[in-house]
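To the wet lab folks,

You asked to see what we're planning to order before we commit. Fair enough. Below is the target structure as tokens, and below that is the sequence we designed to fit it. If anything looks off to you, flag it before the synthesis order goes out.
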């Protein structure tokens, strides 16, 4: 399903070097054609993952498909993030768009971003689908770091063999100095920094039209485990043993 979706998006958008946004009529047409297909793909992939990891992450998340109203690299996003009760219990505001005046940050989420083809620095990039585990919130960052401390080896085993890219909004010297690609090593280096002014980091993989949907279906599993366990550490009624339910996946 990845291949046809991205090939059709490549055919529908011809990027240029001007950097000008797409015409609004063209953008609206892209949303009408591709947002439903992203939602269908997202539901299939997340539901398929549920058969592997169980329904805990579903009980602690809500799924939604969001679109950009104006021309942007990201056309649409399908994501699972905490339900409304999670924010209420922690006295946090609901995120947008559930709260029209809320923040973009959801605390923690797993998402699929559909990106249009574009040109940057004279290099052409084809349409992409990005799988992402994103932490963006002070409580959730501290929760994940505690999870990493308590279950270092299980987290390492979960990430092994997957080409996740680590990113943080704030650059850190010790992370930047590391020239390897091991996401676990980057997480450990990131965790050495007590303060992150943005309280944000992510693990992601970008897929192109030539990539197999099966690769996405495999690589989403560890991220959903990390999501569910981070929620267990962050929610008002702590559940720090949630990782134990997933040991069967890493033995």
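Sequence we intend to order:
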């Amino acid at each position: 399903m990845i291949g046809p979706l991205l090939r059709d998006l490549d055919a529908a958008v011809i990027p240029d070097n001007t950097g000008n946004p797409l015409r609004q009529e063209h953008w609206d047409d892209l949303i009408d054609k591709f947002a439903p297909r992203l939602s269908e793909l997202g539901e299939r992939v997340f539901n398929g993952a549920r058969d592997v990891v169980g329904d805990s992450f579903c009980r602690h998340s809500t799924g939604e498909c969001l679109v950009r109203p104006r021309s942007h690299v990201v056309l649409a996003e399908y994501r699972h993030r905490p339900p409304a009760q999670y924010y209420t219990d922690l006295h946090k505001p609901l995120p947008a768009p559930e709260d029209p005046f809320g923040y973009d940050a959801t605390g923690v989420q797993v998402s699929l971003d559909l990106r249009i083809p574009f040109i940057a620095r004279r290099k052409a990039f084809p349409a992409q689908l990005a799988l992402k585990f994103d932490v963006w919130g002070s409580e959730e960052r501290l929760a994940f770091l505690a999870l990493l401390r308590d279950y270092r080896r299980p987290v390492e085993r979960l990430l092994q063999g997957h080409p996740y890219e680590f990113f943080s909004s704030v650059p850190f010297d010790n992370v930047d100095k590391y020239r390897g690609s091991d996401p676990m090593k980057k997480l450990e280096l990131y965790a050495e920094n007590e303060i992150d002014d943005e309280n944000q980091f992510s693990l992601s993989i970008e897929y192109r039209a030539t990539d197999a949907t099966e690769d996405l279906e495999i690589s989403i599993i560890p991220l959903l485990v990390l999501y569910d366990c981070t929620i267990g550490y962050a929610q008002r009624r702590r559940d720090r043993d949630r990782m134990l339910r997933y040991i069967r996946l890493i033995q």
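Structural context that might help your review: The chain has a mean pLDDT of 94. The longest strand covers residues 107-115.

Thanks,
Computational group
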